[in-house]
Write a structure and sequence with these properties.
Strand order of the largest sheet of chain A: 13-12-11-10-6-9-8-7-14
Shape of chain A: globular
Radius of gyration of chain A: 20 Å
Helix content of chain A: 25-40%
Oligomer: homotetramer
Distance between the termini of chain A: 40 Å
Largest sheet of chain A: 9 strands, mixed
Strand content of chain A: 15-25%
Number of helices of chain A: 12
Number of strands of chain A: 14
Largest interface: A-B, 43 and 43 residues
Order of helices and strands of chain A: EHEHHEHEHEHEHHHEEEEEEEHHHE
């Protein structure tokens, strides 16, 4: 089948994640960028479109214009789906508009500005019958898929303990005082929402923990901190978790761990053994056993599960990284959309990308953590 | 000066830590074992003494007998200090008796059965004027001493965040059902005290965090779990910490992280940078900087602080381990006791071994955590 | 400027490296695949073209047909360059034909079937005035570029010692007996050339050593082995090296190190310090100092050299891998070709991709090693 | 049984290895130092003896005096064995004298000043019927013993390839110009013998390779270098090896790899799998498999071989290091000597310490490497 046609909202000059989305979408020859509304500033949007070799007519001054005009294009020309890479406060409206106009949607995380929006958007997705992908990158890594399989197949026994840690250090200073675009919107409650670090990276950690274990957090106890003077949103947090099977966990998310890059790690322990994964060595998965030597499973090997293999391009020893993990979500999403276009049934393994359920639970996580953080009581039931 | 003469209480057949104490004491040619009451079973004590080549007259049927008889020996023969390596419920009485009879004391951790005993023992130590060493092994590692120096010298700036994790997996099963001596007393409230994992290894983690940072925990929020069915004491716990300078922290201590050995790790972050140490690679200390490459400081090198060097025997690249760290406490303690005997002033660096303050704070940690664990309120002030 | 148009020779069904080339070329939105002769079997070529969504008229039955027909297309349609990903014996002829017909060329390594061909091709490249890129992937990694900068800037002082090791294990068995396409041509002297492992991966190691150090091998002593019974070409080798500044080195290349994946490593030592890079952790570069802590330089950080930064897409802590390294060569090559089309001068940093010099030296390396391997004398002068 | 009584020759002020020997001997409560001739300078010897709390009558002005006087002491007083820790040129004479006077001997490596002496000493050992231990430290590590067991039990299949690397950097400068005692004798042909780095550390690497594989080197090809100007002996070398089963190998030993500490590593590959051990992480042994995940075997675990367990003191996760490895040799030697005194048969596992065979082969290695280094021919048969 032909390549899918992608439109992009956001991702203009100064953006980081927009370029990642484009490269990821581009990677597997399934998708081509055909149009965009790259900035709320029409001039900036135009410049971005030129740089990306887009036809000037397909570079729009606003997302509304893009969605409406694209919707009216002929089927063999108009975009198939839209990728939305704006700050959090600009997720809901364009996503809803796109879905209601018949476009599938890829949306950067977290899902929306607040939980209420997320639940509304979930409803819109359901009604639209379109595919919706939320780019929680880390579940795109093949060894994370392998980790999930190991748990699902009972290799670790019943899960007892989860530890997930997402340390960054880039907000150790009051960076938002300067012109760092990444820092300024992420620390601005009017754009980022109620949460800082917990929303930006804590939701990744939360999603990863639930994805690998197949469990759901049922209550939690949060300690949120604003460490850097003058900041308005949390830049550091720790959350004690209880899962629906009785397992306990700890989640840490911080952007003031000076000197840390982006080293998300997760450890899961069951009755029979444990597993460990580190973003700094993403192609390895450690399995730890009480009475046998630790094993290091490696991406690209023959002994992995089918779903791990499906999400790898290179043989063992040829490291894949962040963009490839990101691209896995795009590829699986694209395979589903193509199947939908062709009227065929998607394979089970293609459906394995984060969606609206993950998004709603992520937004609920933010709100529950914020509420718990303010509470004098230890436990907060996880409510949606 | 001659070697110091050591007597030992506990450490008979089946014990683990007794042999470690003896080897550690033995290592630097400063100490010789001259007598012991190795078991409450007189026959077992005798057998242990024989195996250790002790003179039969110096192998005692009970610690009371040992302390009393040794106290009456001539100065050039009697033991200088006693090393107590019994389970927790048998710490206080022999330690007090030894101190009151003029002997310096090395005591295995945690200090006592409960906080009340610890405070009493602290009083006894003060009144005795004797040296008292509590073997929190991990602060004996040279790179831990270096870590403390880095913090003390302001290299990291004000401390903001501490994460200390002590994962073990050996109690993943109901081991106390069998004849594992280590498991059975540690999980028995009548011998171990109020806490299981939090007392056995959580106190190490707590002590390490306060040692490196020079800070004190001022309040905490604990989640304690009994994961293995039938167990009477916590085997897993997570504690959110607040320090007296406003810094936050997380402490984890678990003995049901299946597949984990004994990999205590600590990370400390300040305004300017972070540090990381892992027990699995104890001769390295990582320093992380926001805008400079991470540095790996190594034991035995010329660029370390004097106190780190003082606690090393071998040049860089010749790994020292657990016994050497243990031996550092014995050596520093011994150097102080020798100075005391010779009437000289101990060097500052010799005084750097854990003592009664650490012990009392450790017991307070246990009690505060236990109380917090039962509470519905989030925060518990750290009280002593 | 518009995307460059790429044609591909080879890379049909069963090929590994063809897909890597396409993904790498595709990554940075600079290049689009427009045509191909994917197999010497016309039917297979056609199928590959379909799968790649190419226009049927641009899928050719042979490389000769492709080059001739593309050469006659109009300028705004015809391919700009050709990427050749066939086995070694099919490098020279299509590359020469392409260059002589005015196409720039990307060629998989090693350059040709033998040294004589390589020298001829070098002449053709020179006469053509076209760009020629030889895909020695590993020099595409940003931390390898950083390593070269460190050496060039004298940080290590005069280089004294180089150790480069390329261990693989996939040919530990007589895999060529089965239907493994990768194994069968690589072990077949009529397709691979005079060398097995030394040609396939030894040339990568050799290229890497010369690239980082800026030195040239001047003599060598080789031990080549055929370890697996029945094999016709070396599957294991060790080479002692002497460089033109007097430095010594050791190069190992083996495909029978059972259990190894593809962990190319290099260590370089100078008067003042050493460096180490491992393919298994490609985003780190270790700098080792005699009297200062080891430093770990990381891709994506602000403190790196400009050329390292130029070859990275993501911020620190977002791992890039093999495909990105590959893509760096394509991107730099493409930037040069675009400049050539636009009549502008390429930036110095774009010119940093492996070319005909590397190719000729690589082929000379193979022939010198083969000859040395057969010789009873220790040293073989490195001749071209 | 009582502790064995040790006398020491060498190891006075400024020595490094003497203190290591004493600490190692001391570690397991099997041995006590009773006498010494610590320096050829009587005054220095006396001072060292005082510092070690020896009885003045047991501190001797020369090794001749010590051996003769100790030989005349009564059986319940005189030393049982002598530990010789002098520079290489002072190994043979005291060792022979000690053996001929009825003392068992522990000798630091390499065995003697030259091969001829080694063969003579071997004869003396045989005639004496005494135990002789050569302290090749690295074979004392429990995971090295495990590695040997894995090979012996056929887990890797027939061995095909060995790579052993011993990198140090401490002689990167002309250190012998100053007053570094370690540097000056090691670089002095009149004290060190014919070889520098190859003798000092290359022999360790050679011994380790033969120990783990159970193979013997049958021919070799050496490249020896004097890198630092003014130095008289090799400070860097690479040797290609052939083993008696046809396997190949590479051995590197260098003391000018600036920034390296003492990171001896070995990799062994067989038909079925490979193993890897690094001195920087001595309590781990990696087993690599072509079609199964890599395994990390750890010291102190229940799944190890009996001989690995016999050479460990602490449970898994409590790192042992260099001194413990050294102590394993002393302990096994001591257990054998005790058995000899008691007239019982030593256990097989006690006999596992390096002896005269290792010593003679080590000295032959030096001479063969030196000769090969000077030769223009590639291969030198390994002759003794």
């Amino acid at each position: 089948m032909r390549k899918l046609r992608m439109g992009m909202i956001g991702g203009g000059p100064g953006a980081f994640i927009g370029a990642i989305h484009r490269t990821a979408a581009n990677m597997d020859n399934e998708i081509e960028l055909v149009c965009g509304a790259f900035s709320s500033n029409a001039e900036k949007s135009k410049l971005a479109g030129e740089e990306l070799n887009l036809h000037p007519q397909r570079v729009y001054a606003s997302f509304e214009e893009m969605i409406q005009k694209e919707a009216r294009l002929e089927d063999d020309k108009k975009m198939d789906f839209v990728s939305i890479v704006t700050p959090n406060h600009l997720h809901f409206t364009p996503a809803r508009l796109a879905l209601q106009n018949g476009f599938h949607v890829v949306l950067d995380k977290p899902m929306t500005f607040d939980l209420q929006e997320a639940k509304k958007l979930q409803q819109v997705v359901r009604e639209s019958g379109k595919y919706f992908c939320l780019t929680h990158t880390y579940t795109g890594y093949p060894m994370i898929k392998e980790a999930r399989e190991q748990v699902k197949n009972g290799k670790l026994g019943d899960i007892r303990k989860v530890f997930v840690n997402y340390p960054q250090g880039w907000l150790s200073n009051f960076l938002e005082a300067g012109d760092n675009k990444q820092a300024s919107w992420r620390t601005d409650p009017s754009k980022s929402g109620k949460a800082g670090a917990i929303g930006d990276i804590g939701t990744h950690a939360f999603n990863l923990a639930e994805y690998i274990t197949g469990l759901q957090v049922s209550k939690l106890c949060a300690d949120l901190n604003i460490v850097v003077k003058g900041r308005k949103l949390d830049d550091d947090g720790a959350v004690i978790l209880k899962f629906n099977n009785g397992a306990s966990g700890v989640l840490m998310a911080s952007q003031i761990m000076a000197g840390e890059e982006n080293n998300l790690t997760i450890q899961v322990y069951g009755e029979k053994g444990g597993l460990e994964w580190k973003h700094s060595d993403p192609n390895s998965l450690l399995l730890k056993w009480p009475d046998q030597p630790m094993q290091t499973l490696r991406a690209g090997t023959a002994y992995l599960s089918e779903i791990a293999k499906h999400n790898t391009r290179t043989p063992a020893g040829h490291p894949e990284g962040f963009i490839e993990a990101f691209a896995n979500h795009y590829r699986n999403f694209a395979l589903c959309v193509k199947a939908s276009i062709e009227g065929t049934k998607p394979k089970q393994e293609w459906l394995d990308f984060p969606g609206m359920e993950d998004g709603v639970r992520g937004m609920a996580f933010i709100e529950n953590v914020i509420e718990s953080g303010k509470s004098e009581m230890k436990w907060k039931e996880f409510t949606i």
